[in-house]
Each structure stands twice: as structure tokens, then as C-alpha cells.
Amino acid sequence: MARTRIAVIGGGVIGGGWAARFALAGHDVAVYDPDPEAGRKIGEVYANAEAATRRLYVAPLPPPGTIRFEGSIAEAVAGAGWVQESVSERLDLKHRVYAEIQETLDPEAVIGSSTSGFKPSELQQGARDPGQIVVAHPFNPVYLLPLVEIVPGPDGDPRAVEWARTLLSGVGMHPLVVRQEIDAHIADRFLEAVWREALWLVKDGVATTEEIDDAIRYGFGLRWAQMGLFETYRVAGGEAGMRHFMAQFGPALKWPWTKLMDVPEFDDALVDLIAGQSDAQSGHRSIRELERIRDDNLVGILQALKAKPWGAGETVAAHEKRLRELSFAGAEAAHDLARPLPLHGATVLPEWVDYNGHMTEFRYLHVFGDATDAFLTYIGMDAAYMAGGRSIYTVETHLRHVAEVREGRPLHVTTQLLGHDDKRVRIVHVMREGEGGAVLATGEHMLLSVDTKAGRACPLAAPVTERLAEIAAGHSALAAPDFAGRAIRSI
Amino acid sequence: MARTRIAVIGGGVIGGGWAARFALAGHDVAVYDPDPEAGRKIGEVYANAEAATRRLYVAPLPPPGTIRFEGSIAEAVAGAGWVQESVSERLDLKHRVYAEIQETLDPEAVIGSSTSGFKPSELQQGARDPGQIVVAHPFNPVYLLPLVEIVPGPDGDPRAVEWARTLLSGVGMHPLVVRQEIDAHIADRFLEAVWREALWLVKDGVATTEEIDDAIRYGFGLRWAQMGLFETYRVAGGEAGMRHFMAQFGPALKWPWTKLMDVPEFDDALVDLIAGQSDAQSGHRSIRELERIRDDNLVGILQALKAKPWGAGETVAAHEKRLRELSFAGAEAAHDLARPLPLHGATVLPEWVDYNGHMTEFRYLHVFGDATDAFLTYIGMDAAYMAGGRSIYTVETHLRHVAEVREGRPLHVTTQLLGHDDKRVRIVHVMREGEGGAVLATGEHMLLSVDTKAGRACPLAAPVTERLAEIAAGHSALAAPDFAGRAIRSI
Predict the structure, then answer these.
(1) Each residue of B334-368: pLDDT tens digit?
(2) From B206, B239, B393, residue closest to A182, measured CB to CB
(3) Scanning every residue of chain B, which has its alpha carbon at the shortest distance from the alpha carbon of A148?
(4) Which CATH number applies to A188-284?
(5) Architecture of the domain whose range is A335-475
(6) B149, B195, B254: best mutation site toward chain A, by most A Cβ within 10 Å?
(7) Residues 6+ apart with CB under 8 A from A123
(8) Taking the domains of chain A in order of start, what are their residue ranges?
(9) Is the interface score ipTM higher than 0.85?
């Protein structure tokens, strides 16, 4: 997708998260926020977002867009194709902001509001061009959670919805277009219902904030991360299905299982009670620390869901595929064939380290395996080649673990072609801590071309052998590393 | 923990899940359910549970307990130390069942009820020994979700609560003792609030069942799997913390964001609407298929949370540690030192396979790395040894990938000691598809003893070298495999 100029109006946690997501996807962002602290705050969100995004995708990210701060709404929105409004939840304020935006904004551009509760028809009241305004409601952390609720409202312009879908899918999100406007859209209605009930439970002394969190995260929270409400219940109903489940649990609707509409008095005593319990529960960790834990867990959960892929993991898998295609499209021309090829980089993820804080043995081969994949794509063995019934398998590997590396460190791999014939390719990878850094490990690999249907060795196809010959000509001037062709010695 | 006789009264999805969890933890289970289909149903749940449990823990499971079916409550509960009641949610039925149980049950045993909604004081009404009955409310799938709400009620016996805690922690659960009884305990109050709101959204045509599920699983569901409600909001409040968050969102409590107490008419039209939408959403997959997807996703999410460990991942990590200790405690005497050591097994997990359905290259080393860990524990290099400031690192590895293997297949690894000196250990692993099956891969590894503080090689400590000498004496009669000491050849 082409780079789009993005304006972010309001630079709090949500606006900052949007700015980071857009910039990390390669779009240039202009921010307007009168808060003199906005720059520092967005910088902190961006640092979290960059670390998490690099961990989430096993693919190179595009060159990031710029984030610049403007002194007025007019300057921020000039030339923008999308405006994301994330100011406080006050309707009069939002109306004033839209009036100012629409004085300058390109009529083809769209304004997305991060509002949690207002209906689009309320936002559009009195606007110069009501159809230009839609709800685009994200979820914190904006740079990691894929969901964005798009609500056009009765006066919405279908082109605005289409542009929202295209732009936001392109930055790795899952746009959910809400067919009928309603206070709080969809997701926040559930959050609100749970929040009210939770306040009652704390106020009545039934449970503390920590016990409530545990009741969620050790139980149904794990279900909801993947299937939501109805599909979970469908499965629970067993072979008899949804009707059976409903027949069984329908009657409970009439029982006094929730306080619900009966809103607790939101007085200082309740605020003190909850804030005090929350301090007891989480106060031993700083917010920055909790943010990192949250982000690491989210990355881990998203990657677990990517395995199928399923739900949010599907969104991540699709975006990762796009990132890889973009990256390889530009790579071919850039490399100097007289040197080992710098085709792969990675970051040491939290789940890659053992209890000592060092990267676990098998993750070295994980990184080398990804480097081999990058090399294969580079020589033209892409999905189309594999679809033709030929693939290439690693048949032998020799690893030398030279040094340890800690969580969060950057890994940089270069690849040298040692030899090839009609069926085989022999390569070495060298892994360094950052480009030009200390050598961490080396990998020597023998790859064999395979006819995947017949399940036996077969010749490599012509475009690939030609590409290999080209690289071999370049790499012929390089000496083979001294560790190549060595065996493990007896003791 | 000693094996306990468990009685499961009521063998539906929940009772079956309990039976499977107890049996897979090594307890013998007696089931009573008058349904002639109960045996088949529990067999299906057990098959799912066994596959999921083997995938969840990177540790050998204990020999499973038996599950037998009895013709009466009296026969099922005779000799039991714990009775899990999971009959239908009808108070009169539960009272009749408790009366029958307490005619036979050991006075020291405890009855845990799976009830979603009844308070313990209601369950205890008219019982011969009210203090013997507690709520022990699990979450489906019982064999994977760690949460169990323990509610003793005002007449509960503290010894019953203590026994519930000990027994249920011992089968890998997270017991949450609820301090004050209330209809629907804690978690189901939230589920009920969300369920009511969701019924309204479907009835009013605001969203379909699929859109509601997506609004949960692409957004806040991912947050709730790890932190729950309050800690998530604490982080969202940023440095200003919980008070700031509450000040910002408190007012929304008064807004019309939910229908809540206003219960929708639960008529046939609503059931048809929801069942129809659910068919459209999920009907292309059977319940069995959805169960497997759900379980695979839960295993993946739990393993992602195990990396820190955090939340439910902490429960899994603690149980895994217990399983390993149990397994190694019995292993020493069992092995024949004249043969390669069968110290490690694993199952090919869904996230271990690539798009071709084969185990990915680096997972072979993952399994060999775990086999090396098992070998190190076997020779006495346990946590206590490492705590002494010495560890052992793999410095060189030679892998041969001989054959492919698909998801779900069992892997069996044997380990042969090729040599050792005062600082080094040289081993080979052979990976087969099941015990005695076809060879999938071989791994030759050189390990080096390291002083972890000084960061350099150091001699192995005496108990370990003695153990190595013992194994070497046994393995000296074995020929070194022909692939050992080989290098990758040039082409």
C-alpha cells in the first residue's frame, strides 16, 4: 500500500498508540496535541510499540514513517488522507475539533474517531461534511490488538467505510464494520456490563480486584482470546449444539445472578477501595514494567494463535505475509554478490530465553532456519515454485555455539553459498549480535531438492540453478570459513 | 501426592472433564451416571483430554488412573476421598444426590459441587453433614482451564477447603477460594452479564453471533487471557494509575451503554435467530473439530503464558515442574545401562509443523535439547548443581534429518554416551517415531562444563563424573553409530 499522510489529533495513550501503529507500517504521521508532554508520552508508547511489533512479525518491517508534531490542527491535517481523532470523550469538544479539521481537510480524506461511546450520528451533528466522519474505535494497546470497530452511522459514506477498511487492514488491523449504530458500539457494551458487576463485587466485599482478575484470567479469559462467546458455548453444548446449550442456560436469565442496571454509587469510598486493592495487587510493579509484561504476553498469545492460524492469529499471519512480500520485492537489487548476503535479522524474544536469561539452544537453529527460508526466497524458491511440486529440505546441519545472547538483543545473519550441484545446495550462516557485532553462532547446512509428491530427490528447476550460479560466481572469491566441513571430534 | 480414590457423580461434558483431569493426574476414578451413553461420552472427552495434556506439559505424565463405571451412587463413593458432583442444575435433585452420597461416604471425604449458580448454603440445606459440601466450580474444558472456584459458604468446614486446595492444585488447577457466597459465585456473574447483553444485540439486529465473537476475540479477549479487568485498566490509566482511570470512565456508568437488567424475552424466535446465526458462523465445522481447535489454541496460549511465567502459565509451569520431579524420582533404578537411555519423549505439537504439515527443522533440535536436559538431570546436573555456579553448555551440534514427521505423532529419543573427560561430554541422540519406530533424525552433541560466574570452562563436579563413568562402563559395549564424528561433505 502506498504511504499515506496520517493526522493524529490528541496524543494520549490511544492517540500515541495510533501514531506508533501507523508509523511502524511506513506511514508519515503528523500529531496535534496542546499538551507540552505529548512528545515525551508518544515517544514512550512508540518505544514499546516498536519492540513489540519487531517481536510479533517474523518478517522485516518497512522503513518507519516519521512522526512530527504540529502547532495547530490545520497544520496537522493539511495533506492528510486519514485523520484519527482521539480527544477526550466530550461531544462539544469533538464537534469543535471536527469543525476546525474540516476547514482544511481534503474532501476525499476521512476522519476516524476513537470514541468509546458516542454514536456516529452524534459526532456528525452540525458537521460541514457529515459523511466524512466515522467511528474507528481501537483497543489498547492500539499497536498490538487487531480489533477496530468501524461505525459509519445512518449518514455514513460507503466510500469512507471502504477507505477505513483498506487503510486499517493495511496496518495489520481487523476492521469490524458495525451495521447499526448504538451507544458504546459492541465490545464496550460488554466491558461496561462487566465493569459494573465488578464494582458491585468489590463494594460488597465478595471479591478483591485481584480475585476478580484471577477469576477471569485463569478461566473464561483464556477461552475468549480465541473464540469469543457464542462459538465457545456452541462447543460447550456438545453434539446437541447451540439449541441444547440455550435450553440449558436460558432459565438462568431470570435468576438474580447479576446486579447489572442497578448502578453502584461511584463515591470516593468506592474509588479508594478499588485503588487501594489495585495497589496491593499490582503496586510492586511499575506501569512501564506491567506494559512490557502485557505486551510480551500479547505477542506470545498472538503467535500461538498464528500457528493454526486462528482468530487474531489470522490477522497477524496475513500481515506478516504482506511484510515479507514487500521486503523481498525490494531486496534483489540491493545486494552485493561479492559478500555474504545479509538476508535475515531477528530479535531475541522473551520465550526464546531459558531460566538463565540466555537464548535457548534450539532457537539458534530457529533463527538459522528462518535465514535459510530467506535465502530460498531470495533464489526464487517462493510459494509459486513449491506449488509446482518441488521443495528443498535440510538434510544435515552442523552448529557451533560460540557465545550467549540475552533477551531483546538484535540478531543479524549473513549467508554464504559454499557449493551447489543439480540437486544439492551447501550454505553457511554466521549469526552476529547486531550487524558487524560479535559472532554468536555458525551454521553449515546441506539442502536437498525434493519432489514432494514422489517423496524423493529431484533436480532443482532452471531459474533457481541460474540464480545459484550467479551467487556462486560472486561468492567464489570468498574463502570458505575454517569451520566448514569439520566434524565433532572424539574425546 | 498420593493417589486418591475419586467419585464423579454425573458424567456429562463437565463430569467427563473432571474424570479425565483426575485420571490423567494418576487418581483412580469411579463414575456414576444413569445415562447409558455416559461411557462413550466420557471416552471421547478423555481422548481429547489426553491429547491436550500430553501437549501441554513438557514432562512425562504419571501412569494414568483407571476410570470405572458403577451402577449406583453408593458403589461409586465407597472408599472415595473426594466426590465431584456434576448433575443438572436442579436444587431438589442435588439434595437427593447428597443424601444418597452421605449414606456411604467416609466422613473425612469432601463433596465438591460443579454448580454454576447455587450458593453452598443452598446446597447444604438438610444435609446430614453440611460442612462436607463445598462448591468446586470448574470451567469448560475442565482438563485444560486451571480455574476452580471453591466456595465453602458460612457453614463450610475449613478442613474441607484445605483438602480442596491441596487435591485440586495437585491436578494442575488454580483454586480460587471465594470469601463470601453469592449467586453464580464470581466468574459466572460476568458471563451472565455479557450473555444478556449479547442476546439483546442479536435480537435488536445490531450484530450477529459471529460479529460479537469477533468483537471479543480480536480485542479485549486477548487482554483478559492474561491480566483480567482491573490490572488491564491500571495499565491503561498510565502513570496516573487506577484513580485516573476511574475518574475518566466513572461517568460512563450513568450512560445508557447496556440493557443489562432488562432481560430479553427468551422465546423460540430468539433461540431460532441465534441458533441460525451460529450455524452460519460455525456449522461448516463439526463440534469435534471445534473442540480440537479450541484445545490446540488453549495449549498454545497457556504455553505462551508459561514463558514468563504469568497467570495461568504460572499454574502450568508449577505443575510441569512437579511432573518432572515425580518422573525422575522413579527413573534411576529403571534403566538398563547396557543400552542407550530412553529418557525423553514428546508429541509433535500443532505449532511445530510448517505449512506442509511436517515438523519444522528447528523443532528437531528443540526435542534433542529437551532430551539433553533430561540426560543432564539423569546424571545429577539438577537445579541444585546449577545453583552451585556450574552449568554445562552445548558448544557443537551435528544433526541429520532422516525423515519427516506429522503433527500429533509421538517422538521417542534414546541417548548414548560416546565419551567424556574432566570438562566435556559427547553424546548422540536418536529420534524415532514412537518407541522402536523409524529413525527420524540423529543428533551428535559436544557439551562443555562452564563456571557460570567466570564465564569459562571448568571441571565437572565429582558426583556427575562418577555417574558418567558408570554410564560409560555400560555404554562401552555399544558401537558408536556410523554417523558419529562425520562432517558435512563438500559439493
Answers:
(1) 678 889 998 888 888 877 888 778 999 999 999 99
(2) B206
(3) B219
(4) 1.10.1040.10
(5) Roll (3.10)
(6) B195
(7) A91, A94, A95, A98, A113, A115, A133, A135, A153
(8) 5-185, 188-284, 335-475
(9) no
